[in-house]
Amino acid sequence: MTALTFLTGCASTAGRLPPAPVSASTESYSYIVGPGDSLNIIVWRNPELSMSVPVRPDGKISTPLIDELTAQGKNSTEIARDIEQQLSKYVRDPVVTVIVTSFVGPYSEQIRVVGEASKPQALPYKQKMTVLDVMIAVGGLTDFAAGNEATIVRSGEGNKQYSVRLKDLIKRGDVSANVEMRPGDILIIPQSLF
Fold first, then answer.
1. Taking the complete model, does pTM exceed 0.70, yes or no?
2. What does the DSSP 8-state code read for residue 118?
3. How far apart are CA 123 and CA 58, in angstroms?
4. Residue 181 forms beta bridges with which residues?
């Protein structure tokens, strides 16, 4: 009976899902602002209009002379141009720079880790982020994790699923199991059957 339990516990999804591609990032990636981000807004020659503001849960910001401006879903350059357009009603030729100083990102781009991670959570996506970076951020695997049966669900490819060998990467140091993440990926780490 114990041999059957052992064989059942060692069953892998590796044969059912394709392995995750090693490279997944795109060179043209531009960070998109989301709720919870902090923005440093600098208005040249107008220090009284320059300030740091949080992006509210509704995705908007408020600054002097601008009651509400949608920031969510835009990059920092697009937000700067929108602020310039609004300020041009009050200031001659405003020049605005927006710097993102605290990163959360929109929910659609966050990396979500669920299951048998030490600290399951959502992480802001970063260009060239790998599954090893994700595992360090979530504190590794629990003692009950079936790491080599983990799955990446790639929302950017219509929820296509890929297998990933987390146990080989973390416990055995097999860097060939390290793959790049994409915005919106979900990493699912199942529990071992024994």
1. yes
2. S
3. 19
4. none
- Tokens for 166? 């987390």
Nearest to 53 by CA among 83, 32, 31, 84: 83
E-strand ranges in 75-189 read 96-102, 111-115, 121-123, 150-154, 160-164, 186-189
Phi first, then psi, for residue 52 (nearest 5°) are: -100, 135
The two structure tokens encoding residue 148: 């080599």
Q: Where do the DSSP E strands lie in 30-107? A: 38-43, 51-54, 60-63, 66-70, 96-102
Q: Collect all residues with Cβ–Cβ distance below 8 Å to 5 and sequence separation of at least 6.
A: 193, 194
| Per-residue pLDDT in tens (0 to 9) along the chain, 194 residues | 433 333 334 444 445 899 988 886 667 888 999 999 999 999 999 999 999 999 999 999 999 999 999 999 999 999 999 999 999 999 999 999 999 999 999 999 999 999 999 999 999 999 999 999 999 999 999 999 999 999 999 998 999 999 999 999 999 999 999 999 999 999 999 999 86
For the sheet with 38-43, list strands across it.
51-54, 38-43, 96-102
Which amino acid makes up residue 164? V
The SS3 of residue 191 is: strand
* Count, residues in the chain: 194
Q: Rounded to whole angstroms, how far apart are CA atoms 115 and 117?
A: 6
**Contact call for residues 96 and 63 (beta carbons, < 8 A):** no
Q: Hey, what are 112's tokens?
A: 């979500």
